[in-house]
Amino acid sequence: MQQNGRFNVKYDKRCYDIYEFLNNHPGGANYVQPYEEKDIAKPMSLYEHSKAAFYLLEEYKTGGRRARDGQEDLEKYVNWNEPMFGQVTKLGTRYYEWVTSPVDRDLRLFGNPVLEYLTITPWYLVPAIWVPVCLYFAVVGTQKYEHITKDPSPLTSALLIFTSGVVLWTLIEYTLHRFVFHIEPSGRSKLMIYFHFTIHGLHHKVPFDSKRLVFPPFPAAIITYILYKSVALVLPDSMILLVLAGGIAGYVTYDMIHFYLHHGAPTENSYFYHLKRYHNQHHFAHHDNGFGISSTMWDKVFGTALKLRKLNIGIKW
């Protein structure tokens, strides 16, 4: 029973204990709870579950995973007791199918403990590091703007420039997610497989691993430096630090929203309720659309928006 740390359902005459999955179910625990100790074949078919959903279901099969009819168990090609970085290129042409077939596990990327530590990021580390940096750039940027422009009342202008940096980040977020994070690597290119897996693929493989939901500080610092150099080429000196401060604020907001969309329980019809449904669709059904995380604005602008079906009842995560 659910109270004892078990929640059994049946599918194809086999038993699955999905207790650990209840709070992660994209459709909410309340859609699943009526089916305890019952067969879920009909609702799985009725609600048009994706291929990824059926693959994920095998994680919870009593006695271990099994190969499905017409769906190979790709986990046999890797050893989950070993670091994954050195194994992914061996998948070759199977890599992309494997990385978009989610499992409910923790993932070790590197054998080296220092490298591994640099890839694991608790959510609170992001604001702890970047909020002070953002505030520093905002204060110094305002002072620099006032000094260069001789504006006696710089706060309004500084706030507008800062806000433009936040908006710029939303476009960067969309562009990175669509054209960099989701570039589909060729199975023949080991370098592209390494790049794709470490930058974003591992998140799609283990979407419930809370230590891999926010961006590690080191690569984030590299992106910040590139952003700084880029805006310095096109903006006057008076605006650079303020735009950068706004961009960092946008980034921190994005990472916190991303973590919340995976582990939070937004109330029905709220902004984050819509975003969580939207992001779940991106993860488990439509990898090639729905790239916005903190906002769906650029998906609508560039024609990659997802349409969410109307629900009979609200979702409760």
From TrEMBL:
Cofactor: Fe cation; Zn(2+)
Record-annotated membrane-spanning stretches: 114-139, 159-181, 213-234, 240-261
Recorded GO CC terms: endoplasmic reticulum membrane
Record's bilayer topology term: Multi-pass membrane protein
Pathway as given in its UniProt record: Lipid metabolism; Sphingolipid metabolism
Domain Cytochrome b5 heme-binding intervals: 1-66
Alphabetic keyword roster: Endoplasmic reticulum, Fatty acid biosynthesis, Fatty acid metabolism, Heme, Iron, Lipid biosynthesis, Lipid metabolism, Membrane, Metal-binding, Oxidoreductase, Transmembrane, Transmembrane helix, Zinc
GO biological process: fatty acid biosynthetic process
Binding site for Zn(2+): H177, H182, H200, H203, H204, H258, H262, H279, H282, H283
Locations listed in the record: Endoplasmic reticulum membrane
EC number of the protein: 1.-.-.-
InterPro entries xref list: Cyt_B5-like_heme/steroid-bd, Cyt_B5-like_heme/steroid_sf, Cyt_B5_heme-BS, Fatty_acid_hydroxylase, Scs7
Similarity section: Belongs to the sterol desaturase family. SCS7 subfamily.
Role noted for this protein: Plays an essential role in the synthesis of galactosphingolipids of the myelin sheath. Responsible for the synthesis of sphingolipids and glycosphingolipids involved in the formation of epidermal lamellar bodies critical for skin permeability barrier.
Protein name: Fatty acid 2-hydroxylase
